[in-house]
Amino acid sequence: MPRPDLRLTNLAVALLAAGLLVAGVVSGSPTGIQAATQSAGYWPSPASFQAGQYYDKPAAVPGSIPVLLAQLISTPPAATLASLASRYQTTPEELAWANRIPAGQALRAGQPLLVPPPGPTVLVRVLAGETLATFAARFRVSPGVVLDYNNLTTAGALVPNTFLLMPKAASPSSLPSSDLVPLQPGFPEVTPSVPAPANQFPWGQCTYWVASQRLVTWSGNAIQWWSEARSLGIPEGQVPVVGAIAVFNIGYYGHVALVTKVLPDGSWQQSEMNVYGLGVLDTRTMVPGENALVGFIY
């Protein structure tokens, strides 16, 4: 049976314009936390770069991943991603990625949805200039395989720096889809979490600030967070994602920050504390491959 064109949804994603933050004046706040804004370049460049756990690396043997008949469904009344995922043996995250549904958006009755094939999946970044055909060729699969996992509307140019859902066999080292949700269609975000009610880290430190923004279940100085999180099975990698913790190997204790925005050129903005003084909160724009970055905790 030929694959119908109606299985595809709109790929148009509005990209935010990148721009460096300019230096600002430190100001006080009623909470005792001060704020500042500064562009990247404060940390020295590292002599070596420590590789993370996740990165895109094609591994599929050409033709080894078959094209399957796309499973399209009509959303029943009052259905949710969770209820449909349970029914069709997939995950809410996979359904969201396959159909480019941003986090927090409810389904509507009758909405057509693509159900991806069963099995583990990953998220793979689209490179500049790639089309459906060239993206598929990079991972040694048929374009039909890409369409089994993504409700696309066009075989033409894909939006660069967005992410597509793929079978894990195509790129086993890519980002796991189960740990990330779409902030906007095609752009990942760490699944939001609630911080612990009691912050175990000293007030005013970088660790204190990050632990006040998301759940941190480990302890130690900033530089220890990378190994501590990994020992608990928390995913890590080299791809900046909103909500991820950026870990830096700088100074005696290291440094951590929270990623708040990822820009189209691969740089990111981060919220952090104690760069310019105890309890001083600032936002900076960072560049990949610099600033002693160890990696990101998702």
Keywords for this entry:
endopeptidase fold (from Nostoc punctiforme); 7-stranded mixed β-sheet; Membrane-bound Lytic Murein Transglycosylase D, Chain A; 3-stranded antiparallel β-sheet; 6 helices; 2 domains; 298 residues; alpha+beta
Report on this model:
With 298 residues, the chain is an alpha+beta fold. The protein folds into 2 domains: 34-53 and 193-297, endopeptidase fold (from Nostoc punctiforme) (Alpha-Beta Complex); 71-173, Roll (Membrane-bound Lytic Murein Transglycosylase D, Chain A). Helices cover 14% and strands 22% of the residues. It is built from 6 helices and 14 strands. It has helices spanning 81-87, 92-98, 132-138, 143-149, 206-211, 225-231; strands at residues 34-37, 71-74, 112-115, 121-125, 163-167, 175-176, 180-184, 187-190, 236-237, 245-248, 255-262, 268-273, 280-286, 293-297. The strands form 4 sheets. Strands 1-13-12-11-10-14-9 form a 7-stranded mixed beta sheet. The chain has a 3-stranded antiparallel beta sheet with strand order 5-4-6. β11 and β12 (268-273) form a beta hairpin. The radius of gyration is 20 Å and the shape is globular. Residues 1-52 have low confidence and may be disordered.
Question: What is the compact description of this entry?
Answer:
The chain is of the alpha+beta class. Helices cover 14% and strands 22% of the residues.
Topology:
Blueprint (H helix, E strand, L loop, with lengths): L33 E4 L33 E4 L6 H7 L4 H7 L13 E4 L5 E5 L6 H7 L4 H7 L13 E5 L7 E2 L3 E5 L2 E4 L15 H6 L13 H7 L4 E2 L7 E4 L6 E8 L5 E6 L6 E7 L6 E5 L1
Parallel strand pairs: 1-13
Antiparallel strand pairs: 2-3, 4-5, 4-6, 7-8, 9-14, 10-11, 10-14, 11-12, 12-13
